[in-house]
Amino acid sequence: MKTSIATVSINGTLKEKIIAVANAGFDGVEIFENDFLTNNLSPKEVTKIVKDSGLEITLFQPFRDFEGMPDNHRIRAFDRAKRKFDIMQELETDLVLICSNTSNISLGGIDRAADDFYELGEIAKERSIKIGYEALAWGKYVNDHRDAWEIVRRANHKNVGIILDSFHTLSKKIDLKSISSIPAEKIFIVQLADAPYYEMDLLYWSRHFRNMPGQGDLPITDFMTYLNQTGYDGYLSLEIFNDNYRSGPRELIAKDGKRSLISLINETDKKKKNTTIIHNIEFIEFALEEKNLELLENFLIMLGFKEIGKHKSKSIKLFIFDDVKIILNYENTILVKEGRKQGPSLYAFGIKVNDIKSLLHNAKSLDIDFVRKDSNQSMDVINNIDGSIYIVDHNSSNVWKKEFNLQEKNLSNEFDLKIDHIAQTLHQDEMSSALLSYTTLLGTKKSPIFDIIDPSGITKSQIIENEEQTFRMTINGADNKNTIAGKFLENKQGSGIQHVALSTNNLIELVKKLNNQGQEFLKISKNYYDDIEARFGLDYEFCKELERLNILYDEDDSGSFLQIYTPVFNDNFFFEFVQRINDYKGYGASNALFRIAAQKYANDN
Length: 605
Ligand code: MG
Ligand code: MG
Known about the structure:
Layout: E1 3-6, H1 14-23, E2 28-32, H2 33-37, H3 43-52, E3 56-63, H4 71-91, E4 95-99, H5 110-126, E5 130-134, H6 145-155, E6 160-165, H7 166-170, H8 177-180, E7 187-192, H9 202-209, H10 220-229, E8 236-238, H11 243-247, H12 250-267, E9 278-287, H13 293-302, E10 306-311, E11 316-321, E12 324-329, H14 334-338, E13 345-353, H15 356-365, E14 370-371, E15 380-384, E16 387-393, H16 399-403, E17 404-406, E18 418-427, H17 428-442, E19 445-446, E20 450-454, E21 457-465, E22 472-478, H18 484-492, E23 496-503, H19 507-516, H20 526-536, H21 540-549, E24 552-555, E25 560-565, E26 574-581, H22 592-604
Parallel strand pairs: 1-2, 1-8, 2-3, 3-4, 4-5, 5-6, 6-7, 7-8, 9-12, 13-16, 18-22, 23-26
Antiparallel strand pairs: 9-13, 10-11, 10-17, 11-12, 14-15, 15-16, 18-23, 19-21, 20-21, 21-22, 24-25, 25-26
Helix pairs in contact: 1-12, 5-6, 12-17, 20-21
The structure holds magnesium ion (2 copies).
């Protein structure tokens, strides 16, 4: 299927927009009338830029308040339409979008509207123009694609068809089966947009919160399934109104759009479905200067980690605690390469996957930046907006033996320690882009966005997991410097891993052991323990023990959760230890505000 995007979806001058659309690999572009009217180029010049960029204009829009006008206004509506047709002919485009009437003076009636469209169809026919009718979710009389289709059907004119827009249909939860009975040749174009679920006015929701398919919560794949039943094989066109996109980096947003469409097309095609299986998060990697090595090593040793090897040729050390591997990379070039002047910085992690080839093939088709392994680099690496992801083949179990001189042979597994999840922190306007890479490339699911209340602001948070829950991540979007997440961004000079959670089968014993070694943990207030004792009906002695150890507690439908935090290291990251009891699924989100308050308190004292 061919892909297109509306100029309104990205920012810039009309020329800049067209060029960004072409660079992102789209086949076509919808010209928004305002983008055309406010630019200084003549229609001929615009058409030349579009053609020279290898694009075509898929659509000119919008034309408003046309159908069902009372007599005196009706004549003017037709005159306005003819004027639009003039511009379209100069732009050499043949499809206009007419959205359903929102005017208070308009009149209802399916036949009245059908008559208007037939008459306009006759005028359009002479100029070889096609008219696409779209039901706005807030149209006065027509606000449902089923009514728009009935009007188009009754108009029964070759030059009049319907335009489907996923937002207008899905935001109103209209029965999708009704799409599959529309003849494909009467669907003139399909516009796609997703959106997070918000209870709000439809018009406001649409104008400010639309996003790319896969970034929001609407069931776009279901929409596509019913659309595919019609046999439609025309353009899929993105029409996004989003406040962040209006100020965000145009090239990145256009690329995200293209990526979201490729992923959506693949997802509804069984043969192209993402088959990547992530076995586990295999390791995390710090970049640092050699002079900071001892500081970080001591921090890790206090947490129970042991150095078990040094890289055979590079300044890289491997630390292990049970199943958790941490790499300390103090090669001279690493911090410069990562653009992070002050190490130590937790900048990368590695995942073990079933099939590297198909993953990299996917990355290529999605235009995601990756670097193949070579003599310099022992693993394939994907460069995402929030850091680097190394890819380990599940078959190459001796990647460590091959490259490291390993010192210890009999490693323990006393606490069954594993990497449970990684918490990324980003600027809020980078969140949707980062998310898209994880969902499209790794085939992960995502939770809706939720707010974490920080005493100094709000952090937006979203959970990314694969079906098997062998890959868990939270992404946190900070918008102000005063929140803990915002401070982290400032210190780190960019996005990255803020904390890593390690899971164990016995958190209480682990904490006691580390306490005995002198390790301290983040102090939690007594008030918290009084509250959870009552809230969860906890055993008094058990609760006292949690309080002594500074362990936080949570429950969900399936089980319970214990978690504890280390102090913040070097102002830029910390570890969390967790224990999931009886298949607890969450991340202790209700404890986040206590953690944040404790970190603030520790900071200020
Ligand atoms: Mg639309
Ligand atoms: Mg966490």
